[in-house]
Amino acid sequence: xxxxxxxxxxxxxxxxxxxxxxxxxxxxxxxxxxxxxxxxxxxxxxxxxxxxxxxxxxxxxxxxxxxxxxxxxxxxxxxxxxxxxxxxxxxxxxxxxxxxxxxxxxxxxxxxxxxxxxxxxxxxxxxxxxxxxxxxxxxxxxxxxxxxxxxxxxxxxxxxxxxxxxxxxxxxxxxxxxxxxxxxxxxxxxxxxxxxxxxxxxxxxxxxxxxxxxxxxxxxxxxxxxxxxxxxxxxxxxxxxxxxxxxxxxxxxxxxxxxxxxxxxxxxxxxxxxxxxxxxxxxxxxxxxxxxxxxxxxxxxxxxxxxxxxxxxxxxxxxxxxxxxxxxxxxxxxxxxxxxxxxxxxxxxxxxxxxxxxxxxxxxxxxxxxxxxxxxxxxxxxxxxxxxxxxxxxxxxxxxxxxxxxxxxxxxxxxxxxxxxxxxx
Length: 425
Prior knowledge:
This protein has helices at about 35-55, 60-85, 95-105, 110-115, 130-140, 160-170, 185-200, 215-225, 245-255, 270-285, 300-310, 330-340, 355-370, 385-400, 410-415, and strands at about 120-125, 150, 180, 205-210, 235, 260-265, 290, 320, 345-350, 375-380, 405. It contains 15 helices and eleven strands. Helix 9 packs parallel to helix 10 and helix 11 runs parallel beside helix 12. It starts with about 35 loop residues before the first helix and ends in a 9-residue tail after the last helix. The protein has an eleven-stranded parallel sheet, with no helix packed on it.
């Protein structure tokens, strides 16, 4: 039984009246909520009916619909390809994005100086404390860098591990031609990695490896690379721990090298035996122009070996053998080679214990050489007497462009040779 307020008739007191039922509604009348499926079915039915009346053949309509679907699929594929091309990242010639990612990988803080100067042609990052991990991050970025030509990473505590990372980078980078890795304690491991790089790299022209604790074991790796690399023109191995064994292996390598024009092996431990081996290498080398052997221990035997090399070598233009314990005997034996040499322009024999007589013997040999082209003679901090000063005047009549520096007896210089004293004249 229905409640009283739902039955026909007047509503009871205190209740809300109910609207009387309206007239019966049609199936699709506006007053009735029609399910979505019914509406879609009706629309499709009407569309099919119109197609049957307007199209003479149903098969042609189906074919056109299939063709339209294929065209739409092709358009979708074409649009997708365009979107992929638009999302490709542009090439970064500086390697900045790679550097940021590499710093996160190796857990190091990005160096703001590098980010500011990575587009420069010369990057100087001395004393930045990179360490091995920082060198790895930097090297990953420099692999794709096309701006930097000169790279200076001296005094950064790279060690052998950091040197290996830089060496791998230099195998890939074909723009960097000047590299300075001085004072980084590279050791034997660093020498091995850099030697492997020199066997492949054809871009590096100048390589500075001063102060890296290279010993006789490291020299073995370096000597393997020198004969094979004919592109590098300047090599600095100064301030290391290379001894007589190093002199023997490096001497043979220098004899076979056809690229080096400048070599600095000063401040090492080459003594008589190693010095003689190096001298034989210089004698056979026909490309070296500048040679710095200062602050070693060549002594008299080494000086004599160098004199013999100068008889044959007619390419070397600059030679520095200052601070090599060369006495009067060694100076006179070295002077024999100067009588025949016709290419040496600069000779530095300063701070050797050869006294004024040694300087006199060197200058006398140059006077006796009609083909001498010497322009600068440095005998700094070696005392000289009046006989030597008089010989200077006589030689300068033959070689007007010759400049001589010597020192020791200041009173004599001031009185007789004021222009020659302590200065080139």
